[in-house]
Amino acid sequence: MSTEHKQVDYIRNVALVGVSFPTYSPSHHPNNPQGSGQIGKHMLKHLLAGGKHTVTVLTRSDSKASFPSDANLKVAKVDYSSEESLVSALRGNDFLIITLSVVAPPTQHGEIVAAAAKAGVHCIMPNYYGFGLGERSGKLTSDPLLSSFGRFLADVKKHEELHYVALCCGFWYEFSLAMGEPWYGFDVKNRTATFYDEGTRKINTTTWEQCGRAVAALLALPVPKQEGGKLAVQDWENQGLHVSSFLISQRDMLDSLNRVLGTTDKDWTITYEKVGERYKKGMEELQSGNRTGFAKAMYARLFFESGEGDYETGHELDNGKLGLPKEDLDEATKKAVEMVEGGFGYH
Questions:
Q1: Is 213 in contact with 224 (CB distance < 8 Å)?
Q2: Are 16 and 172 in contact (CB under 8 A)?
């Protein structure tokens, strides 16, 4: 039987699964096409900076990872195969954030959620980190590749005592730009670019830093509904938290790269590919065992003419509600370039 949940006025205790502090190396491979796990590092940074929460990071019992020295940070070493170990680590927390790599065992997310329910956690940010929810998702919920994102929400919905807030952030900008051609179409190191169609279709994309700010800002709010229109965590209960850094096209990305690198289009080898053909090619590669096909198809799908990659136009982002800053595109691009220069990406 699940532990009885008590409503809290403010979230004080936050558990975080999947934090990593990677160096930029070729180990960032296509089995992890959206860099899940690394986002936890940025969430932890901003949660600790706010000073409003005690954060418990769950890590494997044999992990050698080191973490920042902070009075509000606890590290709990757990056996992920043991429900008892997970429940013990999660007990006393009000909110759980899950950030897992796609190479994590397929049952692991559901097992962590079930343990959270038994531990008395009230709300979970599942391992979603994708496109918009509700009417913003369009045909993506039935796409054979992207419909799998919904299973993370389904894991939470199985437990009626649990609630969720899904962070809808699109693809992570600096990661996606730095990873290589199968992602945003750019090989920064070798100065090649593949434009989907004409390269002018805009999608929403978000930096790791903006995601971290968004989570910290959300969890700093009171939990129960407030009078007078004041914001509360419950305003997003069982919904998507839609944030974004930029609504941009591949053309915008290349323009930014040119400004940062001091290059022009003449310094790049630019090719064009029909986005539908690229998606099909990616799916065929995936089915043949080539894991880069996963990234190629997934990224191409968000650039379809049907427009699901743009979850901002015609809707309201939550950036303003959370007080998120307007970011500088070239600064974000510069970070991606520095990542590439440091060895980040698929090789």
A1: no
A2: no
Q: Per-residue confidence at 341, pLDDT binned at 50, 70, 90?
A: very high
Cβ contact 278:296 at 8 Å: yes
Q: Report long-range pairs for 57-64 (Cβ below 8 Å, ≥24 apart).
A: 57/15, 57/16, 57/17, 57/19, 58/15, 58/16, 58/17, 58/86, 58/89, 58/90, 59/19
What dihedral angle (degrees, nearest 10) is formed by the CA atoms of 277, 282, 288, 292? Answer: 150
Q: Is the dihedral of CA 334, 41, 153, 11 positive or negative?
A: negative
Reported as a pLDDT band with limits 50, 70 and 90, residue 29 is: very low
Tens digit of pLDDT for each residue in 253-290? 999 999 999 999 999 999 999 999 999 999 999 999 99
pLDDT tens column, 172-181? 999 999 999 9
- CA-only gyration radius of the chain, Å: 20
64 vs 324, higher pLDDT: 324
- Domain residue limits, the chain: 13-341
**CB-based contact 13:93 (threshold 8 Å):** yes
The CATH class of the 13-341 domain is alpha beta
**What does the alpha-carbon distance between residue 3 and residue 286 come to, in Å, rounded to a whole number?**
42
Alpha carbon of residue 83 to chain centroid: 26
Quickly count: other Cβ atoms within 10 Å of residue 251's Cβ. Answer: 15
SS (H, E, C) 133-179: CHHHHHHHHHCCCHHHHHHHHHHHHCCCCCEEEEEECCEEHHHHHHH
∠ CA 287-290-294, nearest 5°, is: 75
